[in-house]
Amino acid sequence: MQYKIEEIIEFVKEETASKKVFENSDIDRDLGWTGDDFSELMEKYAEKYKVDMSSYLWYFHHYEEGNGFGSSLFRAPNELVEHIAVTPKLLHDFAEKGKWDLDYPEHKLPKSRYDIIANQVLFLIVLCILIYFWLK
Predict the structure, then answer these.
(1) What is the total count of domains within the chain?
(2) Domain boundaries, position 72
(3) How many beta carbons lie within 10 A of that of residue 29, not counting itself?
(4) What is the mean pLDDT of the chain?
(5) Which one of 21, 97, 129, 131 is at 20 to 30 Å from 103 when CA atoms are compared?
(6) Could you give the angle at which helices 88-97 and 5-16 cross, rounded to 10 degrees?
């Protein structure tokens, strides 16, 4: 398909409520659009421009929302890789191709999300303490 870069820039402006968006604006770092907001933007982008996102790896592009206690002990996936900017130009290029076609650097993530496990363990400890005092 043929899309104009101006159309993609306008899409990003509307979704992020940003007035100044340029071809090379990093949506995460320059526009401050990260976490769940970034994920929602990418879902809307994929749907609107019919882009196959099966090879998309979020953790290269933006922060994760809602870091808890566990993130102070263990790093989240986005902290284990080098940031790659998602720009309107990149979105335009992949809309033209119809698929997310980024060649990610080789990387290795832990098999388990220890930051999330730590949050769950802390939650269970607090819950047990509360139940103990409630029953007492």
Answers:
(1) 1
(2) 5-135
(3) 15
(4) 89
(5) 21
(6) 120
